[in-house]
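During the no-cost extension, the postdoctoral fellow (Dr. R.K.) reprocessed legacy sequence entries with the updated structure-token encoder. One reprocessed record is reproduced below for audit purposes.
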Amino acid sequence: MKLRFLTFLILLALTGILPAHASTEVRTNWFAMGITQAQAGRFPEAATAFTAAAQARPAAGTLVNLGLSEWQCGHAGAAILAWEQALWINPFDARAKANLQFARHIAQVDEPELKWFETASTWLAPNAWVWLAGASLWLAVGALILPKIFRRNKPANLQLLAAFGLAVFLFSVTASVGTMSRANLGFIVKRNAPLQLTPTREGEMLLTLTSGEPARVLKTRGGYYLIQTANSTGWVERGSFGLICPP
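Re-encoded structure tokens follow.
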């Protein structure tokens, strides 16, 4: 019985390690191919390679290069989406921020409107808020419980530490909620994408959307998203819209 259990653990470890190694290797090959194609001026091929690398393992650097390749191809919406996804992974990426500011100025599109807790969620990477919430909670609990364990009075500094930990925990949870809410944001990636009244091919067209225009997904049905832009609400094909959260 013990031997079988040990064998199971070994197999579980191997199946958890090998795909990750393979994914990293595939991502590296596609990334290198994208760099080579971009340096040769073959930007459509470079965009394809960087897309494959990002799908294998999303990384801010890969998405920044993907955005540059898409921009060189004249795909403003796809470039804006890639740079927004880069900031989702690394909010401190200066290249993505600068590129977004330039691209939005040229394409004449606005930034997405964020609620205050969504804005707070952009200050750190999504996973960072989860770790910060866990660490601050244990800090607050430890500051409250340890004096009881050692049967000592609670010093004032420990009470302040507990209050600080609790405040950080509550803010981290709020930012995490903002992250989940912000995951419904996305951008139009095709020029003159039709916004329809119904999620069908024969649906009445309400208006056309600008490439790079932000919107929020309200519902999904088949191959369509129900989205809300700054001025309207309607259905758009999935292929014309990309979510800010990397796949």
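The chain has a mean pLDDT of 88. The first helix runs from residue 2 to 39. The remaining legacy entries will be reprocessed before the final report is submitted.
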